[in-house]
Amino acid sequence: MINQSMAEKISVPYAEALLDLAKKTNLLSETEQDLSFILSTLSSSKDLQLLLANPLIGIAIKKKVLFDLFSDKINKFILNFLSVLIDRRRIVLLNAIINKYLQLAYELKSVIVADLLTAVEFSELQQEAIIEKIKLITKSDNVKLVISIDSNLIGGFIVKIGSKVIDASLSGKLNQIAFYLNTN
Protein backbone atom coordinates (compact mmCIF):
# COMPACT_ATOMS: atom_id res chain seq x y z
CA MET A 1 0.00 0.00 0.00
CA ILE A 2 1.33 3.43 -0.95
CA ASN A 3 0.87 6.22 1.59
CA GLN A 4 -0.29 9.71 0.63
CA SER A 5 3.16 11.32 0.80
CA MET A 6 4.75 8.65 -1.37
CA ALA A 7 1.86 8.83 -3.86
CA GLU A 8 2.37 12.58 -4.21
CA LYS A 9 6.11 12.16 -4.80
CA ILE A 10 5.64 9.41 -7.38
CA SER A 11 2.86 11.30 -9.17
CA VAL A 12 4.93 14.45 -9.84
CA PRO A 13 7.05 13.15 -12.77
CA TYR A 14 3.98 11.65 -14.46
CA ALA A 15 1.99 14.86 -14.05
CA GLU A 16 4.89 16.98 -15.28
CA ALA A 17 5.43 14.73 -18.31
CA LEU A 18 1.74 14.88 -19.18
CA LEU A 19 1.74 18.67 -18.81
CA ASP A 20 4.78 18.97 -21.09
CA LEU A 21 3.13 16.75 -23.69
CA ALA A 22 -0.13 18.72 -23.47
CA LYS A 23 1.79 22.00 -23.95
CA LYS A 24 3.74 20.66 -26.93
CA THR A 25 0.57 19.42 -28.64
CA ASN A 26 -1.49 22.53 -27.71
CA LEU A 27 -4.01 20.41 -25.83
CA LEU A 28 -3.79 22.01 -22.37
CA SER A 29 -7.45 22.94 -22.13
CA GLU A 30 -8.72 19.68 -23.60
CA THR A 31 -6.41 17.64 -21.36
CA GLU A 32 -7.64 19.53 -18.30
CA GLN A 33 -11.26 18.81 -19.26
CA ASP A 34 -10.55 15.14 -19.99
CA LEU A 35 -8.71 14.62 -16.71
CA SER A 36 -11.44 16.40 -14.76
CA PHE A 37 -13.98 14.09 -16.40
CA ILE A 38 -11.90 11.02 -15.48
CA LEU A 39 -11.53 12.30 -11.91
CA SER A 40 -15.27 12.83 -11.52
CA THR A 41 -15.95 9.38 -13.00
CA LEU A 42 -13.49 7.80 -10.57
CA SER A 43 -14.91 9.63 -7.57
CA SER A 44 -18.46 8.55 -8.45
CA SER A 45 -17.56 4.89 -9.03
CA LYS A 46 -16.14 2.97 -6.10
CA ASP A 47 -16.20 -0.21 -8.23
CA LEU A 48 -13.91 1.38 -10.83
CA GLN A 49 -11.50 2.51 -8.11
CA LEU A 50 -11.42 -1.01 -6.65
CA LEU A 51 -10.89 -2.58 -10.09
CA LEU A 52 -7.96 -0.32 -10.92
CA ALA A 53 -6.37 -0.80 -7.48
CA ASN A 54 -6.69 -4.58 -7.49
CA PRO A 55 -3.32 -6.17 -8.39
CA LEU A 56 -5.02 -9.50 -9.14
CA ILE A 57 -6.88 -8.06 -12.12
CA GLY A 58 -4.80 -8.29 -15.28
CA ILE A 59 -3.39 -5.43 -17.32
CA ALA A 60 -5.45 -6.38 -20.40
CA ILE A 61 -8.71 -6.28 -18.44
CA LYS A 62 -7.92 -2.88 -16.91
CA LYS A 63 -7.02 -1.46 -20.33
CA LYS A 64 -10.23 -2.86 -21.86
CA VAL A 65 -12.38 -1.39 -19.08
CA LEU A 66 -10.80 2.06 -19.42
CA PHE A 67 -10.94 1.91 -23.21
CA ASP A 68 -14.63 0.91 -23.15
CA LEU A 69 -15.42 3.63 -20.61
CA PHE A 70 -13.46 6.52 -22.11
CA SER A 71 -12.59 5.84 -25.78
CA ASP A 72 -15.37 8.02 -27.20
CA LYS A 73 -15.19 10.65 -24.44
CA ILE A 74 -11.52 11.63 -24.10
CA ASN A 75 -8.55 12.39 -26.33
CA LYS A 76 -6.55 9.44 -27.65
CA PHE A 77 -3.30 10.63 -26.09
CA ILE A 78 -4.95 10.60 -22.64
CA LEU A 79 -6.04 7.01 -23.31
CA ASN A 80 -2.44 6.20 -24.23
CA PHE A 81 -1.28 7.85 -21.01
CA LEU A 82 -3.71 5.69 -19.01
CA SER A 83 -2.36 2.66 -20.83
CA VAL A 84 1.21 3.57 -19.85
CA LEU A 85 0.11 3.94 -16.21
CA ILE A 86 -1.45 0.49 -16.33
CA ASP A 87 1.66 -1.03 -17.94
CA ARG A 88 3.89 0.51 -15.28
CA ARG A 89 1.48 -0.50 -12.51
CA ARG A 90 0.95 3.14 -11.54
CA ILE A 91 -2.77 3.28 -12.31
CA VAL A 92 -3.47 3.17 -8.55
CA LEU A 93 -1.92 6.65 -8.46
CA LEU A 94 -4.29 8.05 -11.08
CA ASN A 95 -6.12 10.35 -8.63
CA ALA A 96 -2.85 11.77 -7.30
CA ILE A 97 -1.43 12.19 -10.82
CA ILE A 98 -4.56 13.98 -12.06
CA ASN A 99 -4.67 16.25 -9.02
CA LYS A 100 -0.99 17.12 -9.44
CA TYR A 101 -1.49 17.75 -13.17
CA LEU A 102 -4.44 20.06 -12.48
CA GLN A 103 -2.43 21.89 -9.83
CA LEU A 104 0.47 22.42 -12.26
CA ALA A 105 -1.91 23.47 -15.06
CA TYR A 106 -3.65 25.99 -12.80
CA GLU A 107 -0.28 27.40 -11.69
CA LEU A 108 0.66 27.75 -15.35
CA LYS A 109 -2.54 29.70 -15.97
CA SER A 110 -2.22 31.67 -12.69
CA VAL A 111 -5.39 30.14 -11.27
CA ILE A 112 -5.79 30.03 -7.50
CA VAL A 113 -7.10 26.63 -6.40
CA ALA A 114 -9.20 26.68 -3.26
CA ASP A 115 -10.33 23.47 -1.59
CA LEU A 116 -13.77 23.87 -0.02
CA LEU A 117 -14.75 21.26 2.54
CA THR A 118 -18.42 21.50 3.50
CA ALA A 119 -20.87 19.60 5.66
CA VAL A 120 -23.59 19.88 3.01
CA GLU A 121 -23.62 20.64 -0.69
CA PHE A 122 -23.45 24.36 -1.52
CA SER A 123 -25.81 25.99 -4.00
CA GLU A 124 -24.46 27.80 -7.05
CA LEU A 125 -25.16 31.13 -5.34
CA GLN A 126 -23.21 30.11 -2.22
CA GLN A 127 -20.31 28.87 -4.37
CA GLU A 128 -20.24 32.18 -6.26
CA ALA A 129 -20.18 34.09 -2.95
CA ILE A 130 -17.25 31.98 -1.67
CA ILE A 131 -15.38 32.48 -4.97
CA GLU A 132 -15.88 36.25 -4.76
CA LYS A 133 -14.55 36.33 -1.17
CA ILE A 134 -11.53 34.24 -2.18
CA LYS A 135 -10.88 36.62 -5.08
CA LEU A 136 -10.85 39.51 -2.60
CA ILE A 137 -8.56 37.70 -0.16
CA THR A 138 -6.08 36.52 -2.80
CA LYS A 139 -6.38 39.55 -5.09
CA SER A 140 -6.74 37.14 -8.00
CA ASP A 141 -9.20 37.10 -10.88
CA ASN A 142 -8.95 33.36 -11.50
CA VAL A 143 -10.22 31.07 -8.75
CA LYS A 144 -11.03 27.38 -9.09
CA LEU A 145 -13.13 25.88 -6.31
CA VAL A 146 -12.66 22.18 -5.54
CA ILE A 147 -15.57 21.05 -3.39
CA SER A 148 -15.58 18.07 -1.04
CA ILE A 149 -18.33 17.07 1.37
CA ASP A 150 -17.54 15.87 4.89
CA SER A 151 -20.47 15.34 7.24
CA ASN A 152 -18.07 15.31 10.21
CA LEU A 153 -17.91 19.10 9.98
CA ILE A 154 -21.48 19.19 11.38
CA GLY A 155 -22.04 22.59 9.73
CA GLY A 156 -20.16 25.40 8.04
CA PHE A 157 -17.07 24.96 5.86
CA ILE A 158 -13.28 24.95 5.67
CA VAL A 159 -11.41 26.68 2.84
CA LYS A 160 -7.80 25.72 2.06
CA ILE A 161 -5.78 27.95 -0.25
CA GLY A 162 -2.23 26.67 -0.45
CA SER A 163 -0.98 26.57 3.13
CA LYS A 164 -3.71 28.92 4.43
CA VAL A 165 -6.77 27.44 6.12
CA ILE A 166 -9.99 29.27 6.96
CA ASP A 167 -12.03 27.16 9.36
CA ALA A 168 -15.65 28.33 9.58
CA SER A 169 -16.98 24.90 10.52
CA LEU A 170 -19.04 24.04 13.56
CA SER A 171 -16.68 21.19 14.49
CA GLY A 172 -13.75 23.64 14.31
CA LYS A 173 -15.53 26.07 16.62
CA LEU A 174 -16.37 23.25 19.06
CA ASN A 175 -12.71 22.17 19.05
CA GLN A 176 -11.65 25.76 19.81
CA ILE A 177 -14.10 25.92 22.73
CA ALA A 178 -12.89 22.53 24.05
CA PHE A 179 -9.27 23.68 23.81
CA TYR A 180 -10.09 26.94 25.61
CA LEU A 181 -11.95 25.12 28.38
CA ASN A 182 -9.13 22.60 28.82
CA THR A 183 -6.45 25.28 29.12
CA ASN A 184 -8.33 27.27 31.78
TrEMBL record:
<dbReference type="InterPro" id="IPR000711">
    <property type="entry name" value="ATPase_OSCP/dsu"/>
</dbReference>
<dbReference type="InterPro" id="IPR020781">
    <property type="entry name" value="ATPase_OSCP/d_CS"/>
</dbReference>
<keyword id="KW-0472">Membrane</keyword>
<keyword id="KW-0066">ATP synthesis</keyword>
<keyword id="KW-0375">Hydrogen ion transport</keyword>
<keyword id="KW-0934">Plastid</keyword>
<dbReference type="GO" id="GO:0046933">
    <property type="term" value="F:proton-transporting ATP synthase activity, rotational mechanism"/>
</dbReference>
<dbReference type="GO" id="GO:0016020">
    <property type="term" value="C:membrane"/>
</dbReference>
<keyword id="KW-0813">Transport</keyword>
<protein>
    <submittedName>
        <fullName>ATP synthase CF1 subunit delta</fullName>
    </submittedName>
</protein>
<dbReference type="InterPro" id="IPR026015">
    <property type="entry name" value="ATP_synth_OSCP/delta_N_sf"/>
</dbReference>
<keyword id="KW-0406">Ion transport</keyword>
<dbReference type="Pfam" id="PF00213">
    <property type="entry name" value="OSCP"/>
</dbReference>
<comment type="similarity">
    <text>Belongs to the ATPase delta chain family.</text>
</comment>
